[in-house]
Amino acid sequence: MHMSTADLYDEHGEALQSCSLQFRQYGARRAFHGLITTLRCHEDNALLKSILEEPGEGRALVVDGGGSLEAALLGDVIAGTAAANGWAGVVVNGAVRDVVALGAIDLGVKALGSNPRKSHKHGLGTRDVAVIFGGVLFHPGATIYSDDDGILVTTRGR
C-alpha cells in the first residue's frame, strides 16, 4: 500500500526534506519510492544511460542536470531500459523527450520540462555524489518518495 507524500510528511515532519521545485509527471508510474542513486551531468546523458542499464533493484535515479532545458537527458528508449531493469523512477532536474511514449512506460519520471533536442554523448558527469536542488540535499543511499503532491527525501541511511 502506498502512503502519500502528504501523509508521510504529516507523520514524520521535518525528518523529511521537501523538494520545492515544481516537477511535471511524465511516466506511467505516478507514485514511487526507493533508495537514491545520484548523477550530476550537463546536457550529456551517456553516463545516465549506463547507470539505467544496471539492475535497478527498486532504486530511483536523481539527476541534477543543472535545470537545463536545452537538451533532453531522458527519452523513451532509455526509460524503457530503466523499467525493464527494475528501476522505480527517475527525477531529472532538466528536460526529457518522447513525452507521449514516456506516459506508457511503467516508470516514475519527473522532470522540469521537455525538449526534442538530443543531449551530448561524451560521458561527462559525476555519479554517487550529493546533489542539491529545490532546497533538498539528495544523498546516495537516502530514500526518495514521489507522487503527484511532490518529492520527499530522508536523510542519509533512513
TrEMBL record:
NCBIfam families: NOT-MenG, PRK09372.1. Mg(2+) binds at D98. Keywords: Lyase, Magnesium, Metal-binding. InterPro entries: RraA (IPR010203), RraA/RraA-like (IPR005493), RraA/RraA-like_sf (IPR036704). The lineage of its organism: Bacteria, Bacillati, Actinomycetota, Actinomycetes, Streptosporangiales. Belongs to the class II aldolase/RraA-like family. PANTHER family: 4-HYDROXY-4-METHYL-2-OXOGLUTARATE ALDOLASE 3-RELATED. The keyword rRNA processing does not apply. It catalyses: oxaloacetate + H(+) = pyruvate + CO2; 4-hydroxy-4-methyl-2-oxoglutarate = 2 pyruvate. Its EC number is 4.1.1.112, 4.1.3.17. Homotrimer. Its cofactor is a divalent metal cation; Mg(2+). Substrate binds at G75, D76, V77, I78, R97. It comes from the Bacteria. The keyword Metal-binding applies. Catalyzes the aldol cleavage of 4-hydroxy-4-methyl-2-oxoglutarate (HMG) into 2 molecules of pyruvate. Also contains a secondary oxaloacetate (OAA) decarboxylase activity due to the common pyruvate enolate transition state formed following C-C bond cleavage in the retro-aldol and decarboxylation reactions. GO terms for biological process: regulation of RNA metabolic process. This is 4-hydroxy-4-methyl-2-oxoglutarate aldolase. One of its GO terms (molecular function) is ribonuclease inhibitor activity. It comes from Herbidospora solisilvae.
